[in-house]
Description:
The structure is a homodimer. By secondary structure, chain A is α+β, with helices and mostly antiparallel strands. Chain A folds into 2 domains: 7-164, Nucleoside Triphosphate Pyrophosphohydrolase, CATH 3.90.79.10; 174-236, Orthogonal Bundle (Arc Repressor Mutant, subunit A). Chain A is 28% helix and 30% strand. Chain A has 6 helices and 9 strands; from the N terminus they run E-E-E-E-H-E-H-E-E-H-H-H-E-E-H. In chain A, strands 1, 2, 3, 4, 5, 6 and 7 form a 7-stranded mixed sheet that branches. Chain A has a two-stranded antiparallel sheet with strand order 8-9. The termini of chain A are far apart. Chains A and B meet through strand 1, strand 5 and helix 3 of A and strand 1, strand 5 and helix 3 of B. The structure holds a DNA duplex. Chains A, B: This is NUDIX hydrolase. Chains A, B: InterPro entries: NUDIX_hydrolase-like_dom_sf, NUDIX_hydrolase_dom, WH-like_DNA-bd_sf, WH_DNA-bd_sf, WHD_NrtR. Chains A, B: One of its GO terms (molecular function) is hydrolase activity. Chains A, B: Residues 6-159 form the Nudix hydrolase domain. Chains A, B: Keywords: Hydrolase.
Amino acid sequence: MKPQKIKNISVDCVVFGYNTLEKTLNVLLIKRYLESATTAEVLVDDYVLTGYHINEDETLDDTATRALKELTGLSSLYKKQFKAFGSPDRLLNDKDQIWIKNEGFNSRTVTIAYYFLIKTEAVNLKENKYSAKWFPVNNLPELGFDHEAIILEAYEDLKIKCLSEPIIFELLPNKFTINDVQDLYQSILGIEIDNRNFRRKLINKKYIIPLDEKQVGVSKKPAQLYMFSKDVYDKIFEKNYLISI
Amino acid sequence: MKPQKIKNISVDCVVFGYNTLEKTLNVLLIKRYLESATTAEVLVDDYVLTGYHINEDETLDDTATRALKELTGLSSLYKKQFKAFGSPDRLLNDKDQIWIKNEGFNSRTVTIAYYFLIKTEAVNLKENKYSAKWFPVNNLPELGFDHEAIILEAYEDLKIKCLSEPIIFELLPNKFTINDVQDLYQSILGIEIDNRNFRRKLINKKYIIPLDEKQVGVSKKPAQLYMFSKDVYDKIFEKNYLISI
DNA sequence: ACAAAAGTGTTTGCATTACACCCATGG
DNA sequence: CCATGGGTGTAATGCAAACACTTTTGT
């Protein structure tokens, strides 16, 4: 028997992916398209976050994990529930109303929003059934529902979180250069960082481990590769209580 | 006409209050009590967070604000939505099931949890219709539903948040001593802080303003009183991008 | 005068910032 | 040999941490 959907509670997923070559932070969005059955007029044509209404027997985390699994084929990604959105008018645009009627959901749906961090190269979008596509977080397409607001809040949370937790490495390949990490911080935070100071800082961390390997296939001096060791990080981690107000 | 309640979505409020004299961080809880109509047997006797199911025409923030207003008579308190709880088995204890049947809610309710910070002395519990009572966050009574878990997560969030934002002053009277602030940090974080270093740090902040006033009615040397100026804080605030991973 | 809590300075080390040039490699 | 990006060192500053005694007041 099919599990019962709860029609007024959903989970939406902001999937962040970093493109190491273009140095852009991207969000994975799916196409929303609907034509009138009679006139072939285009009724809805935009993008939305991936998301599902929750099932009766499912935790919120489960729903989010399921959504990502179906979108990307991947599980055990970094995931964070960051906020619930429940304004009564969040789905009341004309387009959204048409869409909702078509899908049979409740127009007063509260959504629990998650964000995911993902190594872009791990996703194969070629044979994706949702026409999923990456968009730079700073240059989003037209979005349905209140999804633009959701993405921006996820992004704010990510900006803060990446300063104090080593989640940045979720967005990079397993082997990376110090400059990759710097570029990524710069993309996320929108700031410039001094390269010498940044290198020193990172290289001094015991959980940033130099490999016996250098870049290959680059047309200039190949850079030293490093990996991040979560084990070492967890071992040496200690909470600090620095009050900085 | 009465607004329509949504039976499977609620808001729960963790209300933190600090007792300056006892130096304890407390949570405001309400009594949950039910006797069997026939045998007078006590069916439910414990405490829960204050919370409401949301109305059709209400934002989540509105519901939270309404709950606090009815509980304490106060509005415009510091409020933070910190997490949604939606496990399918979060309300399945026997006691909880009895209670839910009595109240007519859905056993699969997702709750959006908020926490509030409040100056304890601003609340008058004497004539409170909910038998609300303060409990130390480190010594909670028996709690219904999953409310203990909710309180603990709120507390974790508060611990982190108070390190980087000046929310601590929401828990103190308008006029406070430096040692009050230190005691409060110590209560929240469960650590000891060096008094000389802490004083220097605080007194150097431009938004900690010394008043032409000292404590009165204390039986020892009266301390200098200070106030917190949010205006000054907002003016001099600047985001820093210190990466500390 | 005594008890209790308020208040006060200095030193040391560490982390952050600012800053400019040489090096190694592939083409 | 040259263009490109990788990689390197030092000095100045500011902040945090450690640490113990004197002062003020009310009783």
